[in-house]
Amino acid sequence: MVNFVVLEQGLTCSNPFNGVYLHSDNSSKKRKPIATNNLKAIQAKCMEVDDDLRHLVSLISDTGMRLSEATGLMKSDINLDCDYPHNTLNVTSKLVPLDNIQTAIITTIN
User: Fold this and answer.
1) Is 69 exposed, middle or buried (0-12, 13-18, 19+ CB in 10 A)?
2) At a CB cut-off of 8 Å and minimum separation 6, what does 97 contact?
3) Which of 3, 20, 61, 69 suits 35 as a labelling partner, its CA being 20 to 30 A distant?
4) Residue range 17-42, pLDDT digits in tens
5) Are residues 78 and 106 in contact, defined by beta-carbon separation less than 8 angstroms?
6) pTM for this structure?
């Protein structure tokens, strides 16, 4: 890609990535998902204390959103006035459905 741009734009610089080798060893450990019983225990603990961090953990664990997606939500991304409450992630335009618990938490946040 860099070589293509250098050639197409007639640049006189060289590709700084020439000679970079990415090892393709498949011996890296695969991350295992969090066991359902552990996830339920974490979610139950989040319901015991009413603060922003626990709301964030609850939102991520219930919806599968990425941390950056959840922390970057704006009020305008949240649509509660419809048959299926959801978040709209602006970067990807992905709709993330909200369950009753998430909807209740969001409506209590100013």
Assistant:
1) buried
2) 63, 84, 85, 86
3) 69
4) 788 877 777 767 788 888 989 988 88
5) yes
6) 0.53
